[in-house]
């Protein structure tokens, strides 16, 4: 870790002693790496590959579209809020 910050191992150790938040973050990082190694070894898990400049071909064959609502809005709330506008749009389509 010290090399990532461009400091000596002693300086980094001093930082860890002086800053409990940094020490905790480093400990959690070590635990996360250990978890990844364990999962990869026991279950064939591998993190998602980093996308390259290769071509990506996505073909969606579906009618209609996708609507994303804000996380705090339920579908029922949205329908209630937009009922009048939806009715007007339906009338326009019929004309």
What does this structure look like?
The chain has 95 residues and is an all-alpha fold. It has a domain of 42 residues. Helix 2 packs across helix 3. The termini are far apart. The mean pLDDT is 78.
- Estimate the global geometry from the Cα principal axes: elongated
Largest β-sheet summary:
none
- Structural class by secondary-structure content: mainly alpha
Distance between the termini: 68 Å
The run of helices and strands is HHHH
**Global Rg:** 26 Å
Query: Overall mean pLDDT score?
Result: 78
- The assembly state of the depicted protein chains is single chain
Number of strands: 0
Estimated helix fraction: 55-70%
Q: Count helical runs.
A: 4
**Residue windows where pLDDT falls under 50 for at least 5 positions:** none
Proportion of strand residues:
under 5%
Search tags:
95 residues, single chain, 61% helix, mainly alpha
Give a short synopsis of this structure:
The chain is mainly alpha-helical. It has a domain at 2-43.
SSE layout and pairings?
Layout: H1 2-5, H2 9-18, H3 20-43, H4 75-94
Helix pairs in contact: 2-3
């Amino acid at each position: 870790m010290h090399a990532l910050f461009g400091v000596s191992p002693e300086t980094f150790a001093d930082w860890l002693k002086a800053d409990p938040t940094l020490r905790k973050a480093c400990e959690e990082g070590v635990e996360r790496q250990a978890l990844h190694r364990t999962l990869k070894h026991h279950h064939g898990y591998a993190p998602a590959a980093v996308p390259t400049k290769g071509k990506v071909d996505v073909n969606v064959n579906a009618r209609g579209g996708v609507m994303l609502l804000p996380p705090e809005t339920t579908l029922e709330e949205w329908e209630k809020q937009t009922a009048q506008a939806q009715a007007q749009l339906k009338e326009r389509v019929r004309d």
